[in-house]
Design brief:
It contains no helices and seven strands. It is mainly β.
């Protein structure tokens, strides 16, 4: 199940997007300690991030033809929504 989350991110001079923190809908915020990897996909990019010492996947869903004005959304895969 996709759980959409708020993500604070920075952009460097080359345009690379660096996620910095994830905020759940209940208001809990978790700092991203490191980004270890990025796998670009056709519709989604998968980031391997480290949060509190554990590796997790964070996905960036790119805009679609249905929502061309949307920049994109962040989500995590979960068994239940947060």
């Amino acid at each position: 199940m996709r759980t959409y989350v708020k993500v604070n991110s920075d952009f460097d001079a080359t345009g690379y997007m660096q996620p910095r923190a994830i905020t759940w809908k209940d208001g809990r915020t978790f700092r991203i300690d490191a980004v270890k990897d990025l796998w670009p996909g056709k519709r989604d990019d998968r980031y391997t991030v480290v949060i509190q010492g554990e590796e997790r996947y964070l996905y960036y869903e790119r805009p679609t033809e249905l929502h061309p004005s949307r920049f994109g959304r962040w989500f995590v895969q979960s068994a239940e929504s947060a």
